[in-house]
Amino acid sequence: MTDPSSNDVHLIAADSAEQTITDSIDDTPLNQRSELLRGVTTALPMTLGFIPFALVLGAQAVQQGFTVLQVPLMTGVNFAGGSEFTAISLWTSPPHLLLIVAMTFLVNSRHIIMGAALVPFMRHLSKKQSLPLLFFMCDEAWAMGITDCQKRNTMRLSVPFYLGVAACLYSSWVIFTGIGAAVGPLIGDVEQYGFDMAFTAVFLVLLKGMWRGVSRCWPWLVSLVVAGVLYHLLPGAWYVAGGTLAGIIAALIWGKH
Hints:
Elements lengths: L3 H23 L2 H35 L6 H8 L3 H9 L7 H11 L2 H9 L8 H9 L3 H14 L6 H29 L9 H13 L8 H16 L4 H19 L1
Helix pairs in contact: 2-4, 2-9, 2-10, 3-9, 4-5, 8-9, 8-10, 11-12
């Protein structure tokens, strides 16, 4: 008579071997290239939305005294559009650096939560592999990376796919902020053309892609209401941190129910 437990052991071993084979197939150069290309094609529509937004930022930066070379340098080092707009709006001569650093930290505080949410999908990676990926993490790359894992029903982030997305977004952001800085003085106030609406449109697309039904949207609503109230009551970017914190608390409370 065959021991049932031995059958279980054989099944587990077979599953493990199958997973190992699958992992090895996923790591082949051919598959990596296809995943990279899939990331690029997925990010292309979002990249088009980046262009007017980047032009606005570049033009505004030059109006505040930045040079054409300094603009892409800033956007390349600090890859976070919201905090860059905040820094430029607070820029004076001489600049109040401590205020700019504090406001930049507040606006970018959402990245702490985003990074924590991305960690479960990166457990198969070492810290040496994870840290460069986190450098290129913006709202759009984060959302597309997690959404892709959910669509594939896996907790393993596809690194080539993510790099394809990040390469598209990062390069377009740096390049077109530089172009905006170069041509901004020639076309005047670019906001009169409605280019600044691109920022809102991009986030609406991201929310649509992450929609999981009405029952899960209450933390979004709480975060929105709290951020809106703080925006009108407090100066600076405190509404970003307040909205983020309120959304986290709401998610924790709602999750218990």
